[in-house]
Amino acid sequence: MGERALLGLGSNLGERLANLQRAADLLGAAVGVRVVASSRIYETEPVGGPAQPDFLNAVVEVETDLEPRELLAACLGVEQDLGRVREERWGPRVIDVDLLLYDEVDMDEPHLIVPHPRLHERAFALVPLLELVPDPVLAGGMRAADATPGGEVRLWGPPLLVRR
Ligand code: X6L
Ligand code: MG
Ligand code: MG
Fold first, then answer.
1. Is the confidence at residue 1, as pLDDT, over 80?
2. Backbone dihedral region of 70: left (phi > 0), alpha (psi from -120 to 50 degrees) or beta?
3. 7 C-alpha to center of ligand 3: Å?
4. Is 47 in the pocket of ligand 1 (CB under 6 A)?
5. In the annotation, is 98 catalytic?
6. Tell me, what CATH number does 43's domain have?
7. Per-residue pLDDT band at 141 (split at 50, 70, 90)
8. Structurally, how many domains does the chain consist of?
């Protein structure tokens, strides 16, 4: 058993699909984290930051025994393991792993706001999320029907492999 959380994955450098799959595998290998489902994969236009390559984005559902802050640390650990180097703000990255939702939790702490405060503005996160959670409660109690997400997304491929 455990809590249900939704994580956003994004990559726009190197072998993008392999980066997403390795992130999902590493998340599943973390103590107290089980990957239970993946959305399909979308190719998405970059939002914010400098001109940069298109992203592949997906959302994975995990079941976890970790608290939100511990799960966030696990996400950052996976970014480190995949060699993410934080350079320019909103710049291109090998992998990004964001905590989007954690059960019904609503929290606002330094470096950890859940639901993710920008999720409802970003089609690259919201569109794959809706495949796994049809009616999510977003920031401020907003529902998806009231969201106005921006950015082009096009279906690119099937879900990531969930190895159990
Ligand atoms: C005005 C100013 C409007 C800034 C929007 C939006 C900035 C999103 C950063 C913004 C603004 C972000 C991804 C991405 C990023 C991704 C795609 C960010 C952080 N991550 N674009 N841009 N996929 N398609 O995963 O989300 S950088
Ligand atoms: Mg992000
Ligand atoms: Mg991030």
1. no
2. alpha
3. 10
4. yes
5. yes
6. 3.30.70.560
7. very high
8. 1
